[in-house]
Amino acid sequence: MMNRSSLSTILLFLFFSASSAEHNARTERISGSAGDVLEDNPVGRLKVYVYELPSKYNKKLLQKDPRCLTHMFAAEIFMHRFLLSSPVRTRNPNEADWFYTPIYPTCDLTPTGLPLPFKSPRMMRSAIQLISSNWPYWNRTEGADHFFVVPHDFGACFHYQEEKAIERGILPLLKRATLVQTFGQRNHVCLDHGSITIPPFAPPQKMQAHLIPPDIPRSIFVYFRGLFYDVNNDPEGGYYARGARAAVWENFKNNPLFDISTDHPTTYYEDMQRSIFCLCPLGWAPWSPRLVEAVVFGCIPVIIADDIVLPFADAIPWEEIGVFVAEKDVPELDTILTSIPTEVILRKQRLLANPSMKRAMLFPQPAQPGDAFHQILNGLARKLPHDRSIYLREGEKVLNWTAGPVGDLKPW
Amino acid sequence: MKLSALHQSYLNRRRSPLDSSADASSKSFLAVFWLVLHCLCCLISLLLGFRFSRLVFFFLVSTPSSTNLYSPPFRPDLPPPRTDLNPHNATAVEAKTSSSSSRVVVGRHGILIRPWPHPDPVEVMKAHRIIERVQREQKAVFGSGGKSSRAVIAVTPTYARTFQALHLNGVMHSLMLAPYDVVWIVVEAGGASNETASIIAKSGVRTIHVGFDQRMPNTWEDRGKVEVLMRLRALRVVKEEKLDGVVMFADDSNMHSMEFFDEIQNVKWFGAVSVGILAHSGNAEEMVMSMDKRREMEKEESSSLSSLPVQGPACNATDKLIGWHVFNTLPYAGKSAVYIDDVAAVLPQKLEWCGFVLNSRILWDEAESKPEWVKEFGLLNENEGVESPLSLLNDPSMVEPLGSCGRQVLLWWLRVEARADSKFPPGWVIDPPLEITVAAKRTPWPDVPPEPPTKKKDQMSLSQGNNVVVIPKQQQQQQQQRSSKVRKPKRRSKRNKHEAKPTDTTTQVSSSTKHHQERN
């Protein structure tokens, strides 16, 4: 009896290892520092309570400007919609592990579509005042078991200029909350220690529509489309991208291996699928949707942004997938890329071909297992259970409600 | 995303709450003052060409720090960076960063350019090797539906003769280029010789060189029979060694396309492809006459004959095999070549072996999942006259048509040979070098042989007409072969120590070959 059962388990094991070995010829499993967590299912591991805020914080803003749904900060809106219909949502706040505030601070757009962050601190403050006065859960922990989605340039620093953002720092009221943001840079004021970095929003249907067959040979060595100099905002040069993009242009504009220009071709997505390396240099902020596009199209991302923290850094081992180049090494970029051994390049392509990798970078409508929404929930679940010390005693106050620039204190 | 205009308006909005306590008159005065200041700043910025508000800020607000955190390296074509700007920004950043100091500083950085911003050829080569390796991997993983590819077993009957090197190199290069494992079985009539062995040793693929005892006869018909026996000999090797893969018949004078190798991977047991027949060898008159006749036939029948005769499977509208296209020998009745050096069209058999491919398991002994419509290969009696590979089957209707049901021509059949008594240097190496040397510029004979006038007229009409028949280069080669004495001075002149201008001879030679092609 024992022999038969052990024999069957051995056979099962062999079968699975054989099938996974075949699978490995094309892709490889991805396991980051937190383990093999990309395919974890968050359902059942955490409960999220969604506050009911008046629609002036969310729906009215969207009605005023529906462009908020398609720009790269749309993650905040889609996260709200996902949570409303997700099985992790609970209507009983007493059993919730995490609390979510549906507020769209980035949905205040200029005529050209760029978000203005000037009112966002006030909006956030007013929302927090609302939830702290209507529900007891904020005061219980001063927001330590609340999370907010702040996908703007510098996260909860709420400014597009880096000096100004650093000056402001993270909004004082959000100091204890968990921030889900796209911005990530080590040793930076605007990245709090417990934050979860997420990829910027890239439209999944648009990208799926431009897929080409995978046997079309990759013939472009390095590909990049975008600005190198921002003449409107940085006329003298040297500020935009800390000079890194300009260095790429000046050093490699004559190099036939580098297909770089400022064009806006209609075949942008198809060209990425015909390239081996795609440059993802920093702009005014270190992150960009190019990373998501490169991952979806199987092009190895070359990340030129010092100290950047990439999305889901604990779940995805980015050093094994992408190539990191220091900004000071940009003039030697061609030497760096050609000296990577071909086995390493093929391994990176196999990792990129893993469908769970591509799924984790996207925000599909409706949500699918393994997508970015689920990775965010996985990240939140990994932070559970909450430490007992976050629960404050009666009357204890940690946050300073009057900190920050005077202009923020005005009601919204 | 910096919006300078909105930035200014924001500054305005920031400052106005501070002044809300002052009375109305001072408020308006301040507003006017700021307006004037703004206009002044804008004008100065226009003149200078950059926003100098940071400079002003620096002079008004902070004290310069002694340490300069980031000194940008030299960039020749930009104006030298304002070093005073950097300390200001660095101090501002330093003052505000409460956490551990970051080595990434906000502010103006230099644009690093290396001294010679041009591609390095060694690196370009490395990059191309990387690209090639990636593409090969792509093909292996994604190409042909990602199925594991089977080995290609090529069967080539050959024998040592003048054109052997020409033909065998062609087949060899095709096999070397095929992105699959190749086993090349070369059966040589007259026994395995060093000539053949030295040619196929350069292939780099696995070769099996088999000697066949009979010598190759001189008539095309007998040759066909001997070739069949040689092929069966090779198939016996496949059976004995239990080689696994797809067996294809690569006659040494045929031409294969790369798609052929991709397509035959799809065969399950026994497949057939369409073969283009290049039957026109021999002199131009024959060609012209046959062309005219065919054109007449076409006009009469008004049928949709393709200009290139094709042998292969015929399918009905639902892509099922219903018959075979065979070569129409009627136009050539009585005018086809009999001996191998006849100046006439060489005709193929009804169904050439090269158009068939089979799974090597058909030939194996143990009938493990071998379909019952396949004859047992071991029991085949060769003396009964095996004409085409269909004799290996009990039921020829089970043949799979390949290449979108025979619509794609994937290889071309051709037979061209030199005269039976033609001589060639063994291994095509002239050793020791020839003794007679002639000065390159003063050869007693012209490099371009003079044209007989009659031939020119016929060939002119040929080029005007619908020239779909490939006038093969063997015509040139045959002439070259016959006038081999003319060709040898080319070699002589190369070794000639007295040659004054080697370039002239080469240009003369190239112009003569161009002239050849123009004639054709």
UniProtKB/TrEMBL annotation, chain A:
Keyword Transmembrane helix: no
UniProtKB keywords: Glycosyltransferase, Golgi apparatus, Signal, Signal-anchor, Transferase, Transmembrane
UniProt main location, coarse: Golgi
Example of a GO biological process term: plant-type secondary cell wall biogenesis
Single Gene Ontology MF annotation: glycosyltransferase activity
Ranges of residues in domain Exostosin GT47: 45-340
Signal peptide start-end: 1-21
Localization terms from the record: Golgi apparatus membrane
Membrane topology classification: Single-pass type II membrane protein
GO CC list: Golgi membrane
PANTHER family, A to Z: BETA-1,4-XYLOSYLTRANSFERASE IRX10-RELATED, EXOSTOSIN HEPARAN SULFATE GLYCOSYLTRANSFERASE -RELATED
Family from the record: Belongs to the glycosyltransferase 47 family.
Stated name of the protein: Exostosin GT47 domain-containing protein
TrEMBL record, chain B:
SUPFAM superfamilies associated with the record: Nucleotide-diphospho-sugar transferases (SSF53448)
Polar residues bias: start-end ranges: 503-512
UniProt-recorded name of the protein: Glycosyltransferases
Basic residues: bias regions: 484-498
Phylogenetic classification of the source organism: Eukaryota, Viridiplantae, Streptophyta, Embryophyta, Tracheophyta
Record-level Gene Ontology MF annotations: 1,4-beta-D-xylan synthase activity; galactosylgalactosylxylosylprotein 3-beta-glucuronosyltransferase activity; xylosyltransferase activity
Family, similarity comment: Belongs to the glycosyltransferase 43 family.
UniProt-annotated stretches for the region Disordered: 441-520
Low complexity bias spans: 473-483
GO BP of this protein: glucuronoxylan biosynthetic process; mucilage biosynthetic process involved in seed coat development; mucilage extrusion from seed coat; mucilage pectin biosynthetic process; plant-type secondary cell wall biogenesis; rhamnogalacturonan I biosynthetic process; shoot system development; xylem and phloem pattern formation
EC nos: 2.4.-.-
Residues annotated as transmembrane: 29-50
Subcellular location: Golgi apparatus membrane
Function: Involved in the synthesis of glucuronoxylan hemicellulose in secondary cell walls.
Provenance organism: Brassica oleracea var. oleracea
Superkingdom of source: Eukaryota
UniProt keywords, alphabetically: Cell wall biogenesis/degradation, Glycoprotein, Glycosyltransferase, Golgi apparatus, Membrane, Signal-anchor, Transferase, Transmembrane, Transmembrane helix
Gene3D superfamilies assigned to the protein according to its UniProt record, in alphabetical order: Spore Coat Polysaccharide Biosynthesis Protein SpsA, Chain A (3.90.550.10)
PANTHER family: BETA-1,4-XYLOSYLTRANSFERASE IRX14, GALACTOSYLGALACTOSYLXYLOSYLPROTEIN 3-BETA-GLUCURONOSYLTRANSFERASE BETA-1,3-GLUCURONYLTRANSFERASE
